[in-house]
Amino acid sequence: MRFIPRKSPAEKVGDLESSIENQIHDLKLKEYNIDEATLKSLRPKVNLKQFNLSDTGEEKSSNAGILYGLGFGLGILIYMFVLIYGIQIMQGVIEEKTSKVVEVIVSSVKPFQLMLGKIISIASVGLVQFTIWIVLITVLSSGTLAYFGLKMPQKQVMEQVTKQMQNDPDMKAAVDQQNSKVAELLGNWSELPLLKITVVFVFYFLGGYLLYGALFAAVGSAVDSQQEAQQFQFPVTIPLLIGYLGLFLFILRDPHGSVSFWLSIIPFTSPVAMVGRIAFGVPAWQLALSIALLIGGFLLTTWIAGRIYRVGILMTGTKVSYKVLAKWFMMKG
């Protein structure tokens, strides 16, 4: 018995329309005595080569697909890292607070030092995890294939294609054309300022985490359970979500537009927005301004979060509201 997935009415209508359109298309071709192969040959293939002009007027080859993919990947990585490990900070603070362990710890260190230690330690764990994953995947995959005498899938495919090319000239031409495209893509990739992109990515990777990590730590210190944290967690993640949505709606479509500019300047959205723009080429003054504001934003949020943390971490059984948080912030230490 074969399972056939059920389609929604909209999908059924779309399939039916597409089928009717194809049949009408074939009937019209026969009516005008037009061969399908002839029609396809009349459609030319256009391949545009893209170039970027530097400030000195020098031309460098570029590829919009590579720039889009790079901005997409880097932006998603930062969004996921900041959100996942920020929530881990909040959960860790809640656990320490509810288990009364924090009352022993703050007898020897200041609450502000405890908050920074929590943020930095979880950031270190995250970086080590990423490094271990990359090393293990690379080493284990290569070692396993070598141990069993297996060949990499890419090599197997290349050997099969080479055998077929010897007997099929058309396939040889197609492969040569594909190789030229690959060589062009590799050339475009080599033209990218990879060192600059890596340095900028690492800075915003850490800067965004530290900025949001302080806020998540403050939320964790103010509540006694994960359920209570939800009312404060969502407002904290709204700016990060705006940067994430802006990456698709504005930055990757128009990296030099006004909306993209402001998203990459505002500290709460710049970690995701700027790494999405950097591959497209960002003026030095915009990058410097964004970095300066992100550093200032991190210092400001850490100061605000520290004032809430020093009071909230020792408070249990208190019904917390935004008014209470403001009261804790105004209290003199």
Question: Brief description of this entry?
Answer:
The protein is mainly α and 333 residues long.
H/E element order: HHEEHHHHHHHHHHH
Strand order of the largest sheet: 1-2
Q: Tell me the radius of gyration.
A: 28 Å
Estimated structural class: mainly alpha
Distance between the termini: 73 Å
Tell me the number of strands.
2
Low-confidence stretches at least 5 residues in length (pLDDT < 50)?
A: 1-5
Summarize the amount of helix as a percent range: over 70%
Largest sheet: 2 strands, antiparallel
Can you characterise this structure?
- With 333 residues, the protein is mainly alpha-helical.
- The protein has a domain of 197 residues.
- Helices cover 76% and strands 2% of the residues.
- The chain is built from 13 helices and 2 strands.
- A two-stranded antiparallel sheet has the order 1-2.
- A hairpin with a 5-residue loop joins strand 1 and strand 2.
- Helix 5 crosses helix 8 and helix 10 crosses helix 11.
- The radius of gyration is 28 Å and the shape is elongated.
- The protein starts with 8 loop residues before the first helix and ends with a helix.
- The N terminus is likely disordered.
